[in-house]
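Batch manifest line 451
LIGAND: protoporphyrin IX containing FE
JOB: complex structure
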Amino acid sequence: MSAAAQAFIPAAAPVHKRRLSRLEIAFAARRNVLELIPAISYRQPIVTGEVLRRWHMLADPAGYKRVLLDNLANYPKSEIMRRMLRPAIGESLFNADGPEWKWQRQAVAPVFTHRNVVALAPAMSATAARATQRLASGGRIELVAQMLTATFDVICDVALSGREHFDAAAFSHAITRYFQTAGHTSLLDFLGLPEWFPRPGELIAGAAVRTMHGMVAQAIEARRRETSSPADDLLDHMLAAEDPETGRRMSPEDLIYNMQFFIVAGHETTALAISWALYLLANSPEHQQRARAETRAQLNGKVAEAGDLAAMPFINQVLEEAMRLYPPVGLLARHVVARDELCGRTINPNDILFLPIWALHRHELLWQKPELFDPERFAPGTMRDRYQYLPFGAGPRVCVGANFAMMQAGIILSTLIQNFRFRPAQPSPKPVMTMTVRPDPGIFLVVEKLA
Ligand code: HEM
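JOB STATUS: finished
ARTIFACT:
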């Protein structure tokens, strides 16, 4: 890596060097989940503490393999996280466990096979073309909002074959409101108050959830009324899905919850990955130049398509490195069922196990100069432990949309880099995690259309 490129240290999360009090932890959890990760989590494989309940933060590849693969049944999703998501997504695929999870996963998996995702790529290319038109006037632009619009278009196409039943602005406003209220891990959960006690965030978020569910329900109803042949989109697969063991079909509620999750998860995370990549390239002109040269050689002025991506490895390296530094899902939490051992530490039933993917990706024992933006880490052929880099999780619960996300991000990023020069328009934003790792106050860049 050149000296100029080395000079750029991207924005990191605030790290507390001393132990926080119980109250400070509760407030930090509401403000920015990343602040909960103690400084030693970036240097040690496991850190243990106690706030009413014993908790552990794991940042060790072998430990992740045990939790996400080898001893998966011992580590179901944490009740705190599930409770936070339940009003919006119920017991749908992401939140369910055991047989309830398995049949839903089998129902949607066919939509995301490589062959099917390639078939969806034209919708992604069309969106990349529209994003190019929207940025064409140039100037100072906030990129997260732009990328959210782009990826929302694609997921509406894939999930519902179009967006005619959606007021995109109203839906995206409701998502943001939901993330900013219920999305903040509740102070009351940390203080261990019982489940029936009303959480203020949940009350405010209720209205946002009703808005979103109403729109999804309308779109499902419209599909049911349609008499034409199936659209073969995600909704059709869910309408047709049947549990092979029990013959169970998805209830109207199951459908709403699953569609809700796909629409939110399917676009928010990918938009953040592209936005953070643009922020990094804007601040690293040499890397931006290299990415542009690669896209120009391959695309020659046209919009990127699925078949172009293999010939643009550097674009992929940039996206991987952006998700190392800013994993859109920066922290997961699991419940402990039975006694186990991780990194030589005893893990007891009912402990909370945090999986700070954010810290794993910036761990001093695993990465050289982890604070630097260096896409060379992901150069083809570079070896690393499968469990040291986990933007999409791993094991049976690995992200079902990973192929889809990478294709969409590659098509949009390469098309934009070919056509525009990006420069920073403000000091680095702050990474803040409520449910996803978002830049605060956004990613403002000066965008210049190139000939
Ligand atoms: C850059 C984009 C994305 C990132 C970083 C991401 C990240 C993740 C992670 C870390 C998990 C595992 C959660 C856990 O183990 O607790 C997950 C699960 C999931 N993701 Fe994604 N995701 C992305 C895009 C998508 C897209 C585009 C879709 C669908 C269109 C999607 C649908 C899902 C679903 C349904 C699950 C639950 C799978 C299961 O539990 O079986 N994700 N995602």
